[in-house]
Amino acid sequence: MKTLVKVLLGCVLVGALVYLYYTEIKPVVIFGLRSDYAHAIPFQKIPEGLTSLKAESCGECHREIYDEWKTSIHAHAYEDPFFQAYWKKDKNVWVCLNCHTPLENQQPTLVKEIPRGRVEKAVQEPNPQYDPEYQKESVTCAACHVRDGVIYGPFDDSAAPHPTKFDPNFRTAQVCSRCHNVVSGPAQFYNVGPCGTYAEYEGKFFMQERGFICQSCHMPEVDRPIATNSPIRRGRKHLWRGGHDPDMVKRAVGIQVKADNTSPKPGDRVGFTLTLINAGAGHKIPTGDPDRYFTVEFSVEDQQGQVLDHQSSTMGRWIMWQPAIVELYDNRLLPLASREYQFAYQLPAQAEGLKVKTRVQYHILTDKQHEMLQTKYGLTGNDPYRFVVYEREFPLSGALGAALSKSDQPSAVSLQSKEQSCKAGAEGYKQG
Question: pTM (2 decimals)?
Answer without folding.
Answer: 0.88
